[in-house]
Automatic annotation (TrEMBL):
InterPro entries, per database record: Ribosomal_uS15, uS15_NS1_RNA-bd_sf, uS15_ribosomal
Family membership: Belongs to the universal ribosomal protein uS15 family.
Localization: Mitochondrion
Superkingdom: Eukaryota
Protein name: Small ribosomal subunit protein uS15m
Cross-referenced PANTHER family: 28S RIBOSOMAL PROTEIN S15, MITOCHONDRIAL (PTHR46685), SMALL RIBOSOMAL SUBUNIT PROTEIN US15M (PTHR46685:SF1)
Positions in coiled-coil regions: none
Cross-referenced Gene3D superfamilies: S15/NS1, RNA-binding
Length: 273
């Protein structure tokens, strides 16, 4: 009992000494050891072309073009030049130019001349309006009403593209190419970018790169060992065949076996890109 009491009395001192000598202290790696730095991504407004996916459509709308209602008018063919100029887009409100641009964009994808209700025509009309509003927002960035309407319009078009992608993927690809759009699917887990989740992904990516580098180095090491092995095997097979022929014994090693090993050795010595 006295020995046990002495051990219990001196145990705290022993524990302190062990802790000071760092026998039971576990060291954790920090992010600074891995050279991982997280920078908060810049927030881009959804009304910007880079966020909405609009790369722009080249549509030839000139100020000398006639209004939509007067394009095929027979009376204008015999009219005076001054009368013709009065019905051009140059002397009309800006809305007429926007309408002409919308019609030309819709002609790229609509199914027939009177098509207004198909998914392709609606998406084309929305795209024309989005492009026009984005140009307006560049000159009037503080117009809250237009910004909210533009955001809602982009979300509505994205919803229609998402449905079209599920229903008919070929038509979806075709309309994306015709309207020069980039469709960006939403994240699987919606939410804002935060430091904790981003650092987890960066750490996992860093660990994967370390594993890949080690695997690549191990593959190169095995490849060098293969070179030595097949080179030694080739020399031994040649020696065995030569000795068997000299002794008059039926050779167990054929020329095909030696040639196969030689080709394998040439493949190993080929430079890799």
């Amino acid at each position: 009992m006295n020995a046990l009491a002495n051990c219990c009395r001196h145990f705290p001192k022993v524990a302190v000494n062990v802790a000071k000598s760092r026998y039971f202290v576990r060291e954790y790696a920090v992010l600074a050891d891995y050279n991982i730095k997280w920078v908060r991504p810049e927030k881009i407004s959804i009304t910007k072309p880079g966020k909405s996916g609009d790369l722009g459509i080249t549509v030839d709308v000139k100020s000398t073009d006639f209004m939509l209602k007067y394009e095929k008018s027979k009376e204008l063919q015999d009219a005076d030049d001054i009368v013709k100029r009065l019905v051009t887009l140059e002397f009309q409100p800006r809305r007429e130019t926007i309408n002409a641009r919308r019609e030309k964009i819709m002609e790229l994808v609509k199914r027939h001349n009177l098509d207004r209700g198909s998914a392709e025509a609606k998406i084309a009309a929305m795209t024309s309006e989005v492009l026009q509003l984005q140009e307006y927002m560049e000159n009037n960035p503080r117009c809250t009403k237009t910004r909210i309407f533009l955001k809602e319009l982009i979300e509505k078009r994205k919803k229609m593209l998402k449905k079209l992608r599920i229903w008919d993927y070929k038509r979806f690809e075709w309309i994306i190419e015709k309207l020069n759009l980039i469709f960006k699917a939403g994240p699987s887990v919606p939410g804002k970018a935060c430091r904790k989740d981003a650092l987890r992904k960066l750490t996992q990516k860093h660990c994967d790169n370390i594993m890949k580098e080690k695997f690549d180095a191990y593959k190169e090491e095995l490849k060098e060992q293969q070179k030595i092995f097949f080179k030694d095997k080739l020399e031994k097979l040649i020696f065995i065949r030569k000795e068997e022929l000299q002794l008059g014994v039926e050779p167990t090693v054929t020329e095909d076996d030696i040639e196969a090993i030689r080709k394998r050795l040439e493949v190993l010595y080929e430079p890799t890109n």
